[in-house]
Write a structure and sequence with these properties.
The protein is built from eight helices and 49 strands. With about 800 residues, the chain is mostly beta strands. The chain starts with 6 loop residues before the first strand and ends with a strand.
Length: about 800
């Protein structure tokens, strides 16, 4: 929600000449309380050990995708808070994706996925997302089951937080528990002095909330008695009845939010009271009451949020700027501003292993989609959580909400949502703290991508204000050479790195006298963007572990997942056998193929000698460096040592040029290169513009050296892993050659980045499994203005 519109209630506003305590607090809030939240979508709700978890993350600043953070940490824990795996995810426009490969021997239990940006660690850890995932294993000695009963507690919340004699007051009743809540429950309100006659009764809207209205009398004591469908009862006292104060009534509609304030026995009535409305910690509405009056009503128009949905926090301040009432309300309930994808064509076949496609309209403001297609089993299971509930509820509230997606479904009960918000508090900031001038301590700022600090030490001494050379190579790309100067602490900084392939770093110091540039040189690389330990407690779940029976039963979806794993192993074995057959049929020279792969342009000389380190064991690891190893191995190639003790190559008594990945380099850099990183060496004699040269090529991609001897470690080199690159979801037909009898895949299509192509409409294409007759299709997208497109439907 961009450019929040701030409304002043002009008819009762008085000019302000000096900044009041409240105005200072609003300035403090605007400047210091920017916060983020995360929604994490996984392809399934439960997994088998050995599965792959596919996930897509959305990071929001309020109701917009965050433009601040470029890094997200996603961590997988077991129930004992042991970190199992973690990923560093690159965020682009607040979105990023990745996957976890689960090990086959993971014990059966509930696991937890934590996701947060570095900037989020400045605030309460409770706002970091922790997603619950049950993971099953048929070989575990324990089994996960859903608990049959749950322990719950209840609280009541008067609207606005006040309960005043003679004022009709709406109450929200809220159940909470660590696991499952009762399906339905009822209640009644009694006068303690006359308990046999209920004042009012109520029924639950859902598992979470109910509401009732009561007009209290002075001196009376009231109680609410709640009973669930299993007969469990709990009695709770309503707040004491006050003789004076502020009564607040709020209602939301598609036109806006109407509020009515009534003062009871106030000295100056409501004069100089202030009404402040905030959306995502930003001022959206403000009104000052300038007249003597005991009642004020007004309608806050929806333009305060530019017509978008969201939560407005209304806070009422007295003449001394003290908070006297608060209320959360939803903007435009039942009228959600959500775009739907337009499907312009579809070809869906229920036949096993058939090819299916769904085309989205290219005439759209939405250009990048997140799409998940799963088999629909026909059982009407409502979503427990989705991007709507994360955006508007669970991302901002730390209390547990059962099945939050229900509040934004097609048949959502707006009364239930309103009651839920009466029972909640906005905890991203506290008005009393903001009024006192306190602000969060920002220790971790949002950095652009990843940064590293390099510390070279030579002869046990820091290299302060020293020129150093750094060779960096990203994946299969050519090496890059840069000169840096260490700072007064002896550090070199590499900032704003967004690589998702390993970045090889080698550091060299200009050599003096006969000392090698890497002798006694040690280099450490320290990441400056780091994950933080989890100190909180995991949320309670509806699952419990029991001792497994001899004939352990598994949920049908898990049995299917295990069968899919076995199918994937068969397919992989079949592919290996096919590749082996292909390799047997090849008669190409592997050295020639390596030369074609690595050499380009004028380096492809006929008059050359090639040493292949990928396909042949050159027994070079025992040599100090590659230049020493080359002595006596090529006709016409000789070496002379320079003043630094480095061998300089000569061909026919003329000094030869040196190239590293076809880039001219200094001999000291070649001599410092670990032999295990070398894929090929080419001796070129009198070739065109190159002339006499020695060209050294480093390993690319999955290449491995054939040398059986261990290479001497080089302390001047290190590897920066960077961001975790997401795996590619397999979209392929399972044919009969793999001998797959039953294709039981649940996730048929996963694409966190489906782009609108210039040539064809955005197309969802997948192969059916052996049983699906209809498909559950989830589509999420945002346009450039952060308007949300969301739909989940069943297609046949």
């Amino acid at each position: 929600m961009k450019n929040i519109f701030c409304v002043l209630l002009l008819s009762i506003v008085q000019p302000v000449l000096a900044q009041t305590k409240l105005e200072k607090a609003i300035t403090n809030l605007e400047n210091n309380y920017e916060q983020e939240k995360v929604y994490l979508l996984t392809d399934k709700l439960q997994y088998a050990a050995g599965d792959k978890i596919w996930f897509k993350s959305f990071v929001f600043d309020g109701y917009n995708r965050s433009a601040s953070s470029t890094t997200l940490f996603v961590e997988l824990y077991n129930s004992d808070k042991k970190l199992i795996d973690w990923k560093t995810i690159l965020l682009t426009n607040g979105e990023g994706s990745g996957d976890f490969q689960l090990k086959d021997d993971l014990p059966e239990q509930v696991y937890f996925v934590r996701a947060y940006t570095p900037y989020m660690t400045n605030f309460n850890e409770d706002f970091q997302i922790v997603k619950t995932l049950p993971i099953y294993n048929p070989n575990s000695t324990e089994s996960l089951i859903i608990a049959k009963s749950s322990d719950w507690s209840v609280k009541t919340f008067p609207e606005g937080g006040t309960f005043i004699s003679g004022m009709p007051t709406k109450f929200a009743v809220r159940l909470s528990g660590n696991s499952s809540l009762p399906e339905n429950w009822t209640g009644k309100v009694i006068d303690v002095q006359n308990p046999s006659t209920p004042i009012t009764t109520f029924k639950s809207f859902d598992k979470n909330v109910a509401s009732f209205k009561i007009t209290p009398a002075s001196g009376k004591k009231y109680q609410a008695i709640i009973q669930d469908n299993n007969g469990k009862k709990q009695t709770i006292d309503l707040p004491p009845v006050a003789d004076s104060g502020l009564n607040m009534e709020v209602s939301s509609s598609k036109e806006g939010i109407k509020y009515t304030l009534k003062g009871v026995n106030l000295k100056q009535q409501l004069q100089n009271y202030k009404i402040i409305g905030t959306i995502n910690n930003h001022l959206a509405y403000r009104a000052n009451i300038n007249h003597l009056t005991n009642e004020v009503s007004s309608l806050i128009p929806t333009k305060i949020s530019n017509g978008a949905n969201g939560i407005l926090q209304l806070a009422i301040f007295d003449e001394q700027d003290n908070v006297v009432a608060k209320r959360l309300c939803f903007i435009k309930p039942g009228n959600l501003k959500i775009d739907k994808p337009e499907i312009i064509a579809q070809s869906l076949k229920p036949t096993p292993r058939s090819f299916n496609s769904i085309d989205l309209s290219p005439e759209s403001n939405f250009k990048n989609y997140t799409v998940l297609v799963s088999e629909d089993d026909g059982i009407q299971n409502p979503e427990e959580e989705n991007i709507l509930s994360a955006l508007w509820l669970t991302g901002d509230f730390t209390t547990r909400i059962d099945n939050p997606a229900q509040y934004f479904s097609k048949n959502a009960n707006t009364e239930a949502l309103d009651a839920l918000l009466i029972s909640e508090n906005w905890k991203r900031f506290d008005w009393n703290s903001v009024l006192s001038g306190s602000a969060p301590s920002i220790k971790t700022n949002s950095q652009q991508f990843l940064s590293y600090r390099i510390k070279p030490i030579k002869n046990s001494a820091l290299l302060i204000n020293t020129n150093v050379n750094i060779i960096s190579q990203l994946g299969k790309n050519a090496s890059a050479f840069n000169q840096f100067k260490t700072d007064q602490n002896g550090y070199v900084y590499l900032n704003n790195l967004s690589n998702d392939e390993p970045l090889n770093i080698s550091l060299f110091v200009n050599s003096e006298n006969k000392e090698s540039s890497t002798d006694n040189l040690f280099v450490t690389i320290e990441p400056l963007v780091n994950p933080t330990p989890f100190n909180g407690n995991f949320p309670g779940t509806k699952y419990t572990l029991v001792k497994a029976d001899k004939n352990k039963s598994l949920p049908p979806a898990i049995s299917r997942a295990i069968n899919t794993q076995n199918n994937n192993k068969k397919i992989a074995t079949n592919e290996i056998q096919i590749e082996q057959v292909k390799l047997v049929g090849k008669k190409k020279d592997p050295k020639e193929e390596l030369n074609k792969q690595l050499s380009t342009g004028m380096f492809n000389s006929v008059n050359s000698t090639i040493f292949d380190f990928v396909n042949e064991d050159q027994h070079a690891a025992g040599s100090t460096n590659i230049l020493d190893w080359l002595q006596g191995r090529a006709a016409g190639l000789t070496f002379q040592r320079n003043s630094s003790g480095v061998n300089i190559p000569y061909i026919r008594n003329q000094q030869a040029k040196l190239y590293l990945d076809e880039i001219p380099v200094d001999p000291s850099m070649i001599s410092s290169l670990p032999i295990a990183q070398i894929a090929m060496v080419k001796i070129i004699k009198g070739a065109g513009l190159i002339g006499d040269a020695v060209a050294v090529y480093t390993m690319r991609g999955d290449m491995k050296s054939k040398n059986t001897e261990k290479d001497a470690p080089k302390n001047n080199s290190s590897v920066i892993k960077g961001y975790d690159k997401p795996s590619e979801f397999p979209i392929e037909m399972i044919d009969d050659s793999a001998k797959i009898e039953n294709d039981t895949r649940e996730t048929l299509y996963w694409n966190p980045n489906l782009f609108d192509s210039d040539y064809v409409p955005p197309r969802i294409k997948f192969f059916n499994n052996d049983s699906a007759k209809q498909y559950k299709v989830l589509i999420i997208s945002f346009d450039e203005y952060d308007n949300l497109l969301y739909d989940q439907q069943v297609l046949k």
